[in-house]
Amino acid sequence: MMRWICGVLILVLSAGWVILLLKCGSRYAGLRRIPMDGLRLRRLGEPILLLIERMGLGSRFPSLFFKIQRSLQRNYGMRYSAERTLLFMGEMLCYSWLLLLGGSLITLINEERTGILLGSVLAIALPIALASDLHKKVRLREQHIMMELPELLNSIVLLVGAGETVQRAILRCVESRKGDISHPLYKELMTMTGEWESGYSFQQAFENFSKRCAVQEVSLFTTTVLLNYRRGGGDFVLSLRDLSRMLWEKRKALSRTRGEQASSKLVFPMVVIFLIVIVLVGTPAIMMLNM
């Protein structure tokens, strides 16, 4: 009975994928050129994208799509956010499809229920893990920006206090970190300086920078700069120093939190090591008593 069910499931999954592949044709060819890290099944998942659109999963599960789209916007920006959301959902469901297909094949060959059961469990757990990993990357990005922002602000305060303009001070900070474009804060700053060169005003480029970072502390930094940079002089430097002190306090709190999280993660390995030591020390003593 189980082999018959698995055979039907394999037939449905395979035939459905082929039919969807023929229907979508080159409809999603443009999505292949959108840059996005971590997508390994982009070509294989194109029929799944058609299935998502035909079933209207975006309207059926709006909160799920909104959370994923929001996380992708923070990682990659506003451009192509809807397309990236569709690609990410297609990747998740494509993994589920492959796991169900693989589990059914294992059960069909070995006549054991373990394959289909394990495939079904992984087909549910893996998409959840992918979404959780995406949200974790967003949190890490925000923490990296938060940890680096006080350093940037200190450099700007020193340069402005020495007579530089705000724009020139930011340009100097970006030029000093040109070799480290992987850091999210300086990556967004480089985009902002590129907007200046393209003709954007200082205020517009700074507001776009704040939206791309999507971090509360960056919004506070942007608001402080835009409110005070026209005045210049001692008032502007004083406001930046006050903001710098507040951001350093937040950085210390974040460092303490990360330290506590790291120590809590070590509890389980330490318990395991303790139990192993007890077994290693206690086993010879028990054997000697039995003798």
Automatic annotation (TrEMBL):
InterPro entries: T2SS_GspF_dom (IPR018076). Keywords: Cell membrane, Membrane, Transmembrane, Transmembrane helix. It comes from the Bacteria. The chain crosses the membrane at residues 86-109, 115-134, 266-289. GO terms for cellular component: plasma membrane. Pfam families: T2SSF (PF00482). It comes from Paenibacillus monticola. This is Type II secretion protein F.
